[in-house]
Amino acid sequence: MKTIAALLTVSILTMSCTQAGDNNYKLNSEDEKTFYSIGYHWASKLKIFNLSDGEIKAILKGVAASTKGDKAELDIQAYSSKVEPMLKSRMTSAMGTTKEQGKKYIANYLKKNATAKQTKSGLAYEVLKEGSGKSPKATDTVEVHYHGTLINGVVFDSSVQRNKTIEFPLNRVIKGWTEGLQLMKEGGKIKLIIPSELAYGDNGSPPKIPGGATLVFEVELFKVK
What we know:
The protein is of the alpha+beta class.
């Protein structure tokens, strides 16, 4: 498993060195556009650190100097031991904020939707369409359509968008799915709001799902096998 420092290193090394901070710069060639796509993809991993404009400029300045072979402005070795603790602190802070936002989202959803319920585990759900078939057990394989988003509405995965149903055993998915789909019947549709402890926990599932994230799914159950 990569350390946080390694993650940061990979991210900044793939960012453009001399023009990345210039929003007015026009991409001139296919190679530049390709490097831009690489930088955009990998730099998305840095969002969790909540970098200020000055910190982003500092990263870009260091990348440019190192790439050009310029002498460093400070003692790099002296600061290397500070990288991991600082980034861990940033991640812990961001994760705590993300968890708190998820709790508030669930509370507000339950308050605003009279038909929504919450289980003892913390899973919130709302039956969108009652099914008429059988309900799955944790050991069953199911065929479903699903649409997954973060609480801000950003889609991280969707079989609906791919226009292809998916099959999987219920005991090999996140806990919120294992529990939530057992509340359904074939032909039904449900909305699941899954707190992080029933989803991907503190680690998340980078780069799309941050640590501590509450997930929102709409799931349609076609078949229990």
